[in-house]
Amino acid sequence: MAAGVFSGLALRTGADLLPVSxxxxxxxxxxxxxxxxxxxPAELRDCATDHGTFLPAVAGRLAAKxxxxxxxxxxxxxxxxxxxxxxxxxxxxxxxxxxGAARRLADAAGLTDxxxxxxxxxxxxxxxAVATVRR
Length: 135
Known about the structure:
- The protein has helices at 20-30, 41-46, 55-71, 100-109, and strands spanning 5-6, 9-19, 48-49, 52-53, 84-88, 94-98, 111-121, 124-133.
- By secondary structure, the protein is α+β, with helices and mostly antiparallel strands.
């Protein structure tokens, strides 16, 4: 069986691990306004609490964006941060919504469906994305 093929279905995966301390350092160095260059207003609202921005949730979304980008298999492109939007689905699980540049990269890669999982614990955020590919 070829790598990445299961029952005739081609899959691509992407994963990323991000220390929450790296996000804390970005916010400490540039202020929370810097996060607006990486996260959409809706994502920032999803990460907001009564006590400010919940940085583990930010780290999870950033890791998820990187994981999604890895499924595109476009090594010469830069990650289009704001065109990959990580939102909560009605059931509470994460979903990736692709706009603009990210949508074009996914279409060019032949991606059809995308599934996303995020976890954060012990000072780290981890995300994995699995995409199906048109054959």
